[in-house]
Specification:
15 helices
Length: 294
């Protein structure tokens, strides 16, 4: 059997497994649902929306999806606002944050629509889908109730948020551009201050101290790169080390987190953890010391 045939066979097997999980997710009740079921539910909904037939609107597809899945059908029967909320969410239109107060059982269809429309702005103003959905849920008491009652709700919305952020190319480009711009600006100011200190004989000590903080920061980031990728070979380490030397590591980290990139096999840390550690290194090894020096 050729490599191409083996690869296609694996793809077919994975597709069958996925289709089986998608079938059974429609039969599960709220009483038996888990957080993992929420992830599967979110993936299936977004796949259905992507593959819907031409001319069929997103809200119609979402409504039919709710009716064909026991978890969502039961939830919407108990809290009617959830149906309109989900339909508004998948439209992904950037609207101002709405104010909706009241308990979940007291809200109507219009309230659900307002809540759903508010997710897009939360996703646009945060770095990751998880942070966006967290912020969104905290804005509305009704969603907090739903999240506490249904263990699958948050993971479903996280998965929907990931896909919605991928759809909005300007949102991804804006986050990466901000990360890249901040990195280059930070590197530029460091070089500028080093040149000033070097040109002033009376402030040569400041040059040495600033250069030391910069080298410490770069060295610690390189150490993280080595620890993160040491089991993947020297080429991978060298590839990951290059952005550190050119000051683009923060932008690369932001891109991976925003796109929902998962932890690769062989890596020690996930993208979010790696970005957090590198931010702490920049803060404590470079930013704070340079602020004191300058």
């Amino acid at each position: 059997i050729s490599y191409k045939e083996a690869k296609q066979s694996v793809k077919n097997y994975v597709r069958k497994v996925r289709d089986a999980s998608y079938y059974f997710i429609g039969l599960i009740s709220n009483a038996n649902a888990t957080a993992e079921d929420g992830t599967t539910l979110g993936k299936k909904l977004m796949l259905n929306l992507k593959e819907r037939r031409k001319g069929r609107s997103k809200d119609v597809e979402a409504s039919d999806f709710i009716l064909s899945h026991r978890i969502l059908k039961e939830s919407c029967e108990k809290y009617p606002f959830l149906r309109n909320m989900l339909c508004a969410v998948v439209k992904n239109k950037l609207k101002p944050l709405q104010n909706v107060e009241g308990r979940a059982e007291c809200l109507g269809e219009k309230d659900g629509e307002k809540i759903g429309k508010s997710l897009a702005i939360s996703l646009a103003t945060t770095l990751t889908a998880t942070q966006g959905t967290d912020e969104w849920i905290l804005q509305f008491p009704a969603l907090q109730e739903v999240n506490e009652e249904f263990v699958w709700f948050k993971t479903m919305m996280d998965q929907i948020g990931f896909k919605l952020m991928e759809e909005v190319s300007w949102g991804l480009k804006l986050r990466v551009a901000i990360g890249a711009g901040t990195s280059l600006a930070d590197l530029g100011t460091d070089i500028y201050m080093l040149s000033i200190f070097w040109g002033d004989n009376n402030r040569r000590d400041f040059f040495h101290m600033s250069l030391t903080t910069l080298l410490v920061s770069v060295s610690l980031q390189l150490l993280i790169v080595i620890l993160q990728n040491r089991s993947l070979g020297y080429r991978k380490v060298a590839k990951e080390a290059f952005p550190v030397f050119v000051g683009m590591k923060p932008a690369l980290d932001a891109y991976r987190v925003v796109t929902g990139k998962e932890k690769e096999a062989g890596n020690v840390l996930g993208p979010m953890t790696e970005m957090t550690i590198n931010k702490m290194i920049e803060l404590f090894a470079e930013a704070i010391p340079n602020t004191i020096i300058q």
